[in-house]
Amino acid sequence: MPPVLLSQSISTNKETKVGQNPLIFDASFHQNETSIPQQFVWPEDEKPRHEASPPQLYVPPIDLKGFFAGEQVAVSNATQLVDSACRKHGFFQVINHGVDSRLISEAHKIMDLFFGMPLSEKQRSQRKVGEYCGYASSFTNRFSSKLPWKETLSFRYTNDPECSNLVQDYFLNVMGEDFSHFGRVCQEYCEAMSKLSIGIMELLGMSLGIGKSHFRDFYEDNDSIMRLNYYPPCQKPDQTLGTGPHCDPTSLTILHQDNVGGLEVFVDEKWHSIAPCSNAFVINIGDTFMALSNGLYKSCLHRAVVNNHTPRKSLAFFLSPRMDKVVCPPKALIEEIDNPRIYPDFTWSSFLEFTQKHYRADMNTFEAFSKWLKNERK
Ligand SMILES: C=C1C[C@]23C[C@H]1CC[C@H]2[C@]1(C)CCC[C@@](C)(C(=O)O)[C@H]1[C@@H]3C(=O)O
Ligand SMILES: O=C(O)CCC(=O)C(=O)O
Ligand SMILES: [Fe+2]
């Protein structure tokens, strides 16, 4: 049966059916061709046309060491910088974050090994349509146009103590014994990301003026997604995108990019780049946290561009709450006149389902999701 897609009832984001024989994306093959398949060519208004290199976005580096130690000056600096960045665009960086640099390098090595394998090997963990875990070589069996020039490997991480080896087990079950080292590194990396995200939730609670514990408690038992992104070089980097323009539907993204560069954010009506920095994580607010902060903190449009010379890698940890928790802003962030509620209550499980079965995440995901909820999921 060919995979049948997707959101025929959502007018802003129509998908056509993927045909009987979906294209196969094997970068080592495509690299030798002069042009790229039409399915990878993005429409004129979304193409990454840069007359010159884009201006850099200033993303404040937040020093977490002093914040975690409770030093007053560090706490007040961190909360002020985070508050103004999140009210404007939702992007900041963290340094002195406490994640071992050897673990980060190890995770990058694992990615080189994994994505360097032949396509048939990687396909042992092939992601199925409608599911969010597994290997995807572009999204050729999921979408039929505006294909991203990337390969991804995604898996679930949850902080639920009953699933303490979920990532490791995923690698063992899907890829086999030979991948136990991959599994261990990814398990450890996810645990470090979950811990870091809980610390950042304390910071966000303080910068929003509601104290350390509210969001920390909300995400304590998070059910998150880890994704390894690999962007092969492309002979026509001006025609395609590694990851198309979108806002993350998730709560908070912790991104580590290698030193190649390619992440861009749309601020003040222009695309800006975020320069790579190996000892920093780029953090951004996603739609779910925007809703939880009652719209005070922004989930901002971003994308990843590709180049024609160097492969690029990034590690993205998408923090999400436990599936059945109701996402509803705390009373202290609601003001009848100045900041009334604008978003409906929802659960992450319904929002995730929306992005995997009904709508391809883009810049309008949350608005479309709110409408879908109001129309009783039609
Ligand atoms: C819940 C999710 C859907 C996506 C992975 C996570 C968070 C970000 C989403 C995504 C990256 C936004 C751009 C489009 C997308 C299809 C992609 O290019 O990978 C999105 C992810 C997805 O649906 O797989
Ligand atoms: O690879 C990157 O720099 C960004 C990827 C991204 O935005 C995502 O996966 O959501
Ligand atoms: Fe993103």
TrEMBL record:
Name by which UniProt lists this protein: Uncharacterized protein
